[in-house]
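notes to self, project folder thing:

trying the whole complex as one job this time. last attempt i did each chain seperately and stitching them together was a nightmare. two parts in total, labels are on each line so i dont mix them up again. if this works i'll redo the older ones the same way
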Amino acid sequence: MTVDLETKPNNSAKAPLEGTSNLSPLTQTRMVDLWHFRELTKLMVKRDLMGRYRGSLLGSFWPLINPAGHLLLYTFLFSIVLKVKFGNSGSSSNFALYMMTGLIPWSAFAESISRSTTVILENPNLVKRVVFPLEILPLVAVISSYLSQMLALSILFVATTFYLGTIHPTMLFLPLISLSLLLFSAGVSWFLASLGVYVRDTKHFITLGLSAWMYATPIVYPASALPKEFKWLATANPMYGIVNDFRRILLEGLPPDWTSYAMYTSIAIVSWFAGYFFFSKTKKTFIDIM
Amino acid sequence: MSYPVELHGVSKRYNIYDRPVDRLKELLWRNRRCYHREFWALRDLNLQFEKGTMTALLGPNGCGKSTMLQIIAGVLQPTTGSVSVHGRVTAILELGSGFQPEYTGRENAIMYGLILGISQEEMESHMDEIARFAEIGDFLDQPVKTYSSGMVVRLAYACATVVDPDILLVDEALAVGDVRFQKRCLDKVVELREKGKTIIFVTHETTVVEWFCHRAIVINGGKVLADGKVEEMLPLYKKLMDDPDAIAAKVFTAPAAAY
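result (full assembly):
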């Protein structure tokens, strides 16, 4: 019986772990192992979320205060100072809501990948001292970023209801789009988490790269403002379609743009598998580098 | 009959790169280009460890003892050869452990269990025993970063032994604890040994080896210098330690084969 010591967890407490670890660095990790470690992932996500605001006076209110404060700030800036008008359907001219709706999926993505870039390097203990399922580290960063943005989303719901006077039933498409976003974020995160170990410059590059990426995504400007010669961005950049669909279902009451949905979901699935493959192919050598 | 732990021709080579990016380049070139020099931490180890025995690994610093334990623990992959391990392995590798400094002792213990595939409930049921053995009292619910180094090792020791391991690897962890803790650790190890567990031990305390181990392996320069009964190995080890010229030099070599 030949199994990989590093990747096969002991399922039952008593079952002996048999194994031969004569493995090349090319040994694949089976994706089902992620499922075995769901309890561990849950624990770490919980711990991560709790740790963020631990010791602060307002504690668990911060994830709500933050988006609410930003929303007020944007409203003041765009509706009162700059008087920006923007909206595909006549019903909504509130730029702050538009910006916020784009910012939520973007922040979930950006936070996931910027944290993942350093997550392995920050945990040398887990690489060197124990046989730890390292692939869950980027995943913890992704899930935790998601959950914190979910609170922002609840603020957005309240604000949308208040401004629009109604909630669009199309918001039921949200889990569908979120799933694509999750797959995409996790794939990119795995890739960058591994790359970050090899190339220490990754984190600096990512800071710059994320700014560029954000401006290539219609977050602070409407999609219609993009010049014709840059329209290809809409297909090449999955975040473009995702942000667009968030606005369609939450603010405009339209179903997702299915052509673009199919496009970014395919990219998301490919990046999930490719990112995972790259990570598990390279993770065996992390310890030699760190 | 198979042994709980067997090493078949295990070697560990470290590729020494001058820059981290060279490693990635080599990976992408799929070894068609060479950017490194080599350091062999272990060379062709063939060893078997029997059930219910306690073996000491002896040797100068940097001779490969810890690397060997890391390979048996599955943290490190051997470059060539294979290791077969039957049963649950727990390890106390170097000082500290896989603990997260921000997590409490309890959370770390639960995480330790989850990594091994032990449910949270089961680990909770061991918690009193862990707290008692580690003697950390109310610190159990404080972050591990607030612990003294002795407390960290005691917690690591408690976790590693409470989960009923078949194979226990201990890497010089005793050095940090006070005399009383050292004694309790050894008692625990002897208890495990008598239950038929396999224990592999790295230590420089020759008295410990003399009293508790069945077998000693002297390692020098990544190779087995001698392997046998403790009373025969100890004089050899002492001789090695007294003769600086005998201790293998650490040299980087050019890769053997052309790529």
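what i see at first glance: The longest strand of chain A covers residues 18-20.
need to look closer tmrw
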